[in-house]
């Protein structure tokens, strides 16, 4: 016979799992609705002329599997989602450069969309806690051309998360889509079905991700 306290514990854990699953499903549903609303690629593109501002990019290096902050002056729009699109586009441009320390083809065109979804609290009352989920919609061409390997793929994913964390403090979670659809992995290894916490992607001083 199962002890009463273990039965209670099982019920509590099951209820918590259901609530967290419902919260995650709601976030993904809202993200999918944003895609269906017809947000065009142009809506997240930086305008031809925009004020130059400082942005912090966490740039990956395959040499020692690390990420290094790099502060650049970029023309950035005021709209947060367009701003995120421009910043990540620059990060991808660095990766497609001939002398890239983390060579990945595609450049800024690899980012189809970036948009933010408010995160609701897990208590089920629909209240928002001020944090946001960033949904990064990559192109299938980028995913298809990305070098395969756990370290290379993880560095790309984590550098995106860390760069978003550095420039958008309210973004605490990141989800990835490819051509608007869920994809199991980036190029066979890095899991794209999970939600990434931006705080976990930020390397501490002297440490590797």
What does this structure look like?
The structure is a single chain. The chain has one domain (4-201). The protein has 209 residues and is α+β, with helices and mostly antiparallel strands. Helix 2 runs antiparallel to helix 4 (150-167). It has helices at 4-36, 80-96, 140-145, 150-167, 198-201; strands at 52-61, 66-75, 111-120, 128-138, 171-178, 196-197. A hairpin with a 7-residue loop joins strand 3 and strand 4. The chain is globular.
Number of strands: 6
**Major beta sheet, specifics?**
4 strands, mixed
Strand content: 15-25%
Name the strands of the widest sheet in spatial order: 3-4-5-6
What letter string, H or E per element, gives the SSE order? HEEHEEHHEEH
Q: What's the overall geometry?
A: globular
Mean pLDDT: 84
Low-confidence stretches: 40-47
Please, how many helices? 5
Q: By helix and strand content, what is the structural category?
A: alpha+beta
Task: Work out the radius of gyration.
Answer: 19 Å
Counted up, domains total: 1
Distance between the termini: 46 Å
């Amino acid at each position: 016979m199962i002890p009463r306290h273990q039965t209670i514990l099982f019920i509590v854990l099951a209820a918590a799992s259901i609530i967290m699953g419902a919260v995650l499903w709601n976030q993904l549903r809202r993200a999918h609705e944003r895609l269906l609303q017809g947000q065009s690629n142009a809506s997240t593109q930086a305008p031809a002329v925009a004020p130059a501002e400082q942005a912090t990019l966490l740039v990956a290096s395959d040499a020692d599997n690390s990420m290094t902050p790099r502060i650049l002056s970029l023309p950035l729009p005021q709209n947060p989602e367009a701003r995120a699109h421009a910043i990540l586009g620059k990060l991808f441009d660095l990766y497609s450069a001939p002398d890239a320390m983390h060579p990945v083809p595609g450049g800024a065109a690899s980012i189809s969309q970036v948009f933010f979804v408010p995160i609701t609290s897990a208590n089920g009352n629909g209240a928002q806690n001020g944090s946001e989920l960033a949904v990064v919609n990559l192109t299938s061409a980028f995913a298809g051309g990305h070098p395969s390997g756990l370290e290379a793929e993880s560095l790309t994913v984590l550098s995106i998360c860390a760069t978003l964390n550095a420039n958008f403090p309210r973004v605490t979670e990141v989800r990835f889509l490819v051509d608007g659809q869920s994809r199991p992995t980036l190029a066979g290894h890095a899991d794209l079905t999970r939600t990434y916490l931006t705080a976990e992607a930020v390397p501490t001083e002297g440490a590797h991700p």
